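Data deposition worksheet. Section B asks for the primary sequence of the deposited chain exactly as it was used as input, without tags or linkers unless they were present during the calculation. Section C holds the resulting structure in token form. Section D is free text for depositor observations; keep each observation to a single sentence. Incomplete worksheets are returned to the depositor.
Section A, Depositor: J.P.
Section B:
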Amino acid sequence: MTAPAGAAHSARRERMSAVRSTKQFANSMAVALLGLTLLAGAAWAQGNYIMSPPPNVRPPGLKNVGIQQNLNEQIPPDLTFTDDLGRQVKLGDYFGQKPLILNFVYYGCPMLCGEELSGLESTLRVLKFDIGKEFEVITISFDPKNTPQIAAKKKEQFLGRYNRPGAEQGWHFLVGQPDAIAAATKAAGFQYEYDPKTEQFAHSTAIMVLTPQGKIAQYYYGIEYPPKDVRLALVEASQNRIGNVVDEVLLYCYHYDPTQGKYSATVLRILQLMAVATMAGLGALFFVMIRRDPNNSRPDNFKGAEQVR
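Section C:
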């Protein structure tokens, strides 16, 4: 009687272990599916997002001020500027290796340009990507009166906030002559106007993400830029040469919406991902239940003992 009793106790433990494992797996799958459901809900909400007026709707008096999206436009690589060290450079000198962020400011701007640069620096400080390593930044002054000395002071100010080694090699503050400025801003769709009465420029604010070859991939408006969107934009512009597998999954589920200047969830893709995850989860659960079936786990001698009884 001792052997059958021990076998029965062992089989009971195996059955309880199988039940616990199955419940734990089922709970894990439920949590995962709930997360995907919430993600789909967020996607649906974004899909019904009420758009703000397009950026080209401008108030009276600012008809020549704004930003026209020139997606996939090539920024002319042969345009010559002067960097913050006083060196003559061509924009093409920065092309060919890494994705880039391009923005236009003027270094004597009393308010808006400083806010734009502050918002950009704050976003870049959040990213795990490093300026000069995974990507580069080109800041061009559209005021031909700005000098390399003024550009150097502005660079020192924002690199001091960013405070990462090597960034001075990757964030370029440029000044230039009217012809080069006009050609660069025209290619980027950046439109501004000088007011001789106030001696200031009327302009909008935006950053552009460029491919390593210098083509415009995306625009982001305003003075604050979502770090998640900027990261995905850099990954996509680099053709996945930077980033990780999580970025690839997010890029599958999200797409850049040029009308909103941000990434929006793609409902169909998320539903497809949910379907794949559900089928995989059910298949794995079915496999575990078969492998952990208590009837298949009983030792042969125990089955024989039951027949003797």
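Section D:
The first helix runs from residue 2 to 47.
The first strand starts at residue 66 and ends at 67.
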